């Protein structure tokens, strides 16, 4: 629902880093106005983000908020320093003595900002390393420990994701990310990430422990998908069927998928094997 936030963020960055610099670029008196405008934009966006929380993960809201806070502190320091350059009386309100130069006050603010940035980075690293946002990590029922994800010597991946790009690319990309979240350490073959040689599809299948087929429209009409099917059946690989039934999302009825499969591969893929439905959960 908040797809527009990315566009708003891009406009904010352009405004703060580019457009504002054009205002009165040749007049020194406009430096304070530019700093005030940047502070107003950054503060407004931080308040808006805190109100609507546009990111799916809470940790992303926190990280973005911290970065915005650092910018706000920086712009405040810039306003104070510009004020000192314009009016010595302004500096005296911050404890700046008449005999001191603005450079000394600038050094104090830079040191203060360095501490703020360093503390923020430490906090960001901690949040990133520890945040799970309620994500469930699969564990063994008996031991309550994460399952050991071992691989045989001839295997490079735990699971090979076989799919057709036209109707299944987005779904399997989501599937890979979710598998990596709930099973830390799992090795998942996905062509956009791991395919280096289209001529070696059979080798990739051979080096995978399990093959997951994402059944969607056009799967059995794809020459490369059929190469993968042929390889997994000849190698007698364990097969998992994941079925996209929503026709508006590239799916098809399961029986239609069975009918489209060449008859010589139906026993290998469908005998004694029920498909897992691909389910979408509205957030």
Fold topology:
Elements: H1 4-22, H2 31-52, H3 58-86, H4 88-92, H5 102-130, E1 157-162, H6 165-182, E2 188-189, H7 191-194, H8 201-206, E3 208-215, H9 223-234, E4 239-243, H10 254-260, H11 266-270, E5 276-277
Parallel strand pairs: 1-2, 1-3, 3-4, 4-5
Helix pairs in contact: 1-2, 2-3, 3-5
Element order, helices and strands?
HHHHHEHEHHEHEHHE
Instruction: Give unreliable regions as ranges.
Output: none
Strand order of the largest sheet: 2-1-3-4-5
* Percent range for β-strand residues: 5-15%
Shape: elongated
The helix content, as a percent range, equals: 55-70%
Total number of helices: 11
Describe this structure in words.
The protein is of the alpha/beta class and 283 residues long. 55% of the residues lie in helices and 8% in strands. The chain has a 5-stranded parallel β-sheet, with helices on both faces.
């Amino acid at each position: 629902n908040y797809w527009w936030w990315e566009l708003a963020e891009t406009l904010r960055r352009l405004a703060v880093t580019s457009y504002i610099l054009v205002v009165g670029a040749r007049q020194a008196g406009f430096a304070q106005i530019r700093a005030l405008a940047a502070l107003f934009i950054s503060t407004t966006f931080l308040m808006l983000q805190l109100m609507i929380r546009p990111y799916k993960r809470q940790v992303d809201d926190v990280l973005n908020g911290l970065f915005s806070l650092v910018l706000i502190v920086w712009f405040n320091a810039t306003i104070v320093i510009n004020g000192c350059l314009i009016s010595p009386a302004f500096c005296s309100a911050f404890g700046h003595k008449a005999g001191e130069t603005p450079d000394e006050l600038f050094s104090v603010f830079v040191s203060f900002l360095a501490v703020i940035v360093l503390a923020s980075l430490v906090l960001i690293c901690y949040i990133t390393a520890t945040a799970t946002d309620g994500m469930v990590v699969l564990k063994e029922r008996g031991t309550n420990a994460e399952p050991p994800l071992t691989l045989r010597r001839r295997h490079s991946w735990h699971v090979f994701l076989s799919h057709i790009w036209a109707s299944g690319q987005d779904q399997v990309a989501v599937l890979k990310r979710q598998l990596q979240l709930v099973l830390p350490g799992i090795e998942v073959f996905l062509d956009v990430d791991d395919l280096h040689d289209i001529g070696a599809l059979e080798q990739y299948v051979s080096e995978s422990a399990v093959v997951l087929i994402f059944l969607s429209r056009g799967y059995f009409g794809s020459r490369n998908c059929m190469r993968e099917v042929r390889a997994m059946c000849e190698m007698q690989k364990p097969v998992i069927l994941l079925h996209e039934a929503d026709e508006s999302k590239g799916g098809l009825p399961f029986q239609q998928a069975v009918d489209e499969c060449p008859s010589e591969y139906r026993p290998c893929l469908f005998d004694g094997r029920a498909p897992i439905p691909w389910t979408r959960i509205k957030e």
